[in-house]
Amino acid sequence: MRYREESGGQEHSYLSLCRFLSSISCFQSQLTYFPMYRLAEVEVAALYPRIREVTPNCRNGKSKILLCTFVNAVYASIVSLVFSRQLIPRADLLSHADYSGVSTDAQVRWIGHIVVQNRNCSLIVQKLPDQVDEPLRPGFEFKLFDAFEDYRWTLDGRGIVVQHQLLSEPDKQYRQLTMLDLQSPISASRSRKLCVFKAWRLQIVRFCYRDNLQQMLVFVNQRGRQLQDAYLVDLRNGDKRLLYKNDKYILLSFDFNCTLRLGLTENKNGMQEVYTKNASSAFQLHKAFTADTSVGSRLISIDKDGSTIYWISNEHEDKGSLVAEDAITGFQRVIQHPKRADISYVYIDFLTGEPLLAGEEYFYPEITYVHEKLAAHYSFLKERFPDATIYPLRISADFSRWYFTVVSDREPGTYYLYWNAGDQRRLLFLFYSNRKVRKYKMQPKRAVEVVTRDGLVQVCYLTCPADQFSTPYPLVADVHGGPHARNYWEFDSTVQLHVDRGYAILQCNFRGSTGYGKAFLRAGFGQWGGTMQNDVIDAIDWSVSAGIADPARLAISGVSYGGYAALMATVQTPDMFQCAVDSFGPSNLVTLYQSMPREWKPTKASYAIRLGATANTEAEMRWLFNRSPIAYKDRIKTPLLIIQGMDDLVVPVKESDQIVEALAGSGLTLIYAIFLDEAHGLHYVPNVLLQYSLVERFLQLYLHGESETVATIPKGCTAMLEAYPEWNTLETWCTTAIYQFVYLLLETEIMGGEKVKCSLIFKEGDEVKGFIVKNVIGFGSFGQVYEVFNSADNQPAAMKVELTAQRNHTLKNELMILRKLRNANVRHICKIFTYGRVTEYSYIIMSLVGPNIRYLLKTTNANGAFNLRTVLHVGVLSLEALQDMHSAGYLHRDVKPENFAIGNEPNSRQLFILDFGMSRQFVNNEHVHRKPRAKCGFRGTLFYASANALKLCEQSRKDDIWSWFYMLIRMTTGNLPWCHKMPSKEMKLQKQARALSIVKNEVMGNASSFLAGCPTEFHNLLRHLKSMTYYDRPDYDFIYGQLNQIMKKNKLTDDMPLDWEQLRTN
Question: pTM of the predicted model, to two decimals?
Answer without folding.
Answer: 0.69
